[in-house]
Inverse folding.
C-alpha cells in the first residue's frame, strides 16, 4: 500500500502571517535600513493586529447576523427600520449621510453595479487565499505559506490574487469609477464645508471690533508689558475658533434636521404601505374598515402619512439635540466601526493638501 500523505502538523494563525508582513521592513536590504526604529514600531503594530484580530471577527459576526435579520424583513419594514435609525441618529453620521446623498445623485444604480464587481472579485481572492493556506505541496506536514519568508509570502499572495482575477480590465474599470465617484463626492463635501467656514470667519470679522474694544484692555493688563502685543492676536484667534465651532455645530444641526425629516418620511411611508399591504384600511371589496376612512381610501390621497412622518421627525430631531448628536450606550459600541468611518470621512473633509480648512 502507498504510504499515506502526511497530515498538516502546524498551521500559522492569521495574526502570525500578518506579523510576517510587519517584519518585512526589518530584513536586511530594506529601503532606508533603520532597525532600531522598526524594532520600536513592530511591538505596537503587532499589538494593534492582535486587538483587531479579536474585534474584527466579533463585529463581522454581529453585522452579518444583523444583515441576515434585516434581509428577511419585507421591503417596507426595512424602510421603517432605516427611517427610524436615520431619524434618531442621523446627526451623528452627518458626513456619511451627506456622502450617501451625494453618491445617490452621482448615480446610485451604476455605483452599486461597480461595487458588486469589486466585492465579487475580492470574495474570489479571499476564497482562493483560504484554500492556499492549506496547501502542502512538499508533503512535509507544514503548510507552504508557513515556510515562506515575509517577502516570499507577499509575492506569493500577490501573484495568487492576480491569477484569481480573470478579467482585470473589468475590475480596473469598476475601481476607476468608484475612485472617480469618491473624489467627486469628497470635493463636493469639502466645498460645502469651506463655504460654512468662510461664512463663520466673515461673522468673526464683523464681531472683531466690538469684542476687541471690550476685552483688549483687561487682556493687556493680564498679559503684562512683555506680552501685551499678543492681545489683539489672541482675541482674533479665539473669536475665529469660536465662530467656526458654532458654525460646525449649526451645520451638524442642519444635517440632523434633514436626517430626521427624511427618516421620518421613510418610516411613515413604509408604515402605511405595510398597513395597506395587510389590508388594514380597506377590505377585499375596497370598503373602509374604519368609519373615518372613505370608500377606496388610500394614504396617497390624505395627509395622514405626512402628519406621522413630520411628527416623528420633530421628536427625532429633539432627541438628537438633547443627546448632543451622539450615540447612547451601548449603541456607541455596536456602531463603533461606522463611527470610525464617519470620523475618517470628516478628517478627509476637514483636511486638504494645503492643511486644515479650519
Amino acid at each position: 500500500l502507498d504510504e499515506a500523505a502526511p497530515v498538516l502538523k502546524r498551521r500559522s494563525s492569521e495574526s502570525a502571517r500578518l506579523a510576517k508582513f510587519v517584519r518585512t521592513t526589518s530584513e536586511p536590504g530594506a529601503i532606508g535600513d533603520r532597525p532600531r526604529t522598526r524594532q520600536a514600531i513592530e511591538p505596537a503594530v503587532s499589538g494593534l493586529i492582535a486587538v483587531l484580530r479579536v474585534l474584527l471577527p466579533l463585529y463581522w459576526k454581529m453585522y452579518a447576523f444583523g444583515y441576515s435579520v434585516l434581509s428577511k424583513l419585507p421591503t417596507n419594514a426595512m424602510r421603517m427600520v432605516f427611517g427610524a435609525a436615520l431619524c434618531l441618529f442621523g446627526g451623528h453620521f452627518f458626513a456619511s449621510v451627506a456622502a450617501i446623498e451625494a453618491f445617490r445623485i452621482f448615480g446610485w444604480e451604476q455605483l452599486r453595479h461597480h461595487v458588486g464587481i469589486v466585492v465579487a472579485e475580492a470574495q474570489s481572492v479571499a476564497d482562493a487565499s483560504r484554500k492556499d493556506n492549506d496547501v502542502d505541496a512538499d508533503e512535509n506536514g507544514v503548510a507552504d505559506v508557513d515556510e515562506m519568508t515575509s517577502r516570499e509570502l507577499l509575492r506569493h499572495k500577490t501573484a495568487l490574487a492576480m491569477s484569481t482575477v480573470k478579467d482585470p480590465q473589468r475590475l480596473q474599470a469598476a475601481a476607476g469609477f468608484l475612485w472617480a465617484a469618491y473624489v467627486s463626492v469628497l470635493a463636493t463635501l469639502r466645498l460645502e464645508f469651506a463655504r460654512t467656514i468662510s461664512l463663520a470667519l466673515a461673522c468673526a470679522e464683523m464681531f472683531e471690533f466690538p469684542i476687541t474694544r471690550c476685552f483688549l484692555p483687561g487682556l493687556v493688563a493680564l498679559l503684562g508689558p512683555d506680552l501685551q502685543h499678543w492681545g489683539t492676536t489672541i482675541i482674533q484667534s479665539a473669536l475665529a475658533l469660536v465662530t467656526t465651532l458654532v458654525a460646525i455645530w449649526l451645520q451638524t444641526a442642519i444635517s440632523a434636521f434633514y436626517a430626521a425629516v427624511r427618516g421620518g418620511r421613510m418610516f411613515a411611508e413604509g408604515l402605511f404601505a405595510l398597513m395597506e399591504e395587510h389590508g388594514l384600511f380597506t377590505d377585499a371589496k375596497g370598503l373602509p374598515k374604519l368609519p373615518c376612512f372613505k370608500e377606496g381610501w388610500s394614504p396617497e390621497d390624505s395627509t395622514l402619512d405626512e402628519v406621522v412622518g413630520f411628527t416623528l421627525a420633530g421628536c427625532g430631531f429633539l432627541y438628537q439635540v438633547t443627546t448632543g448628536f451622539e450615540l447612547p450606550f451601548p449603541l456607541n459600541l455596536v456602531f463603533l466601526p461606522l463611527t470610525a468611518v464617519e470620523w475618517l470621512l470628516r478628517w478627509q473633509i476637514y483636511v486638504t493638501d494645503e492643511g486644515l480648512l479650519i
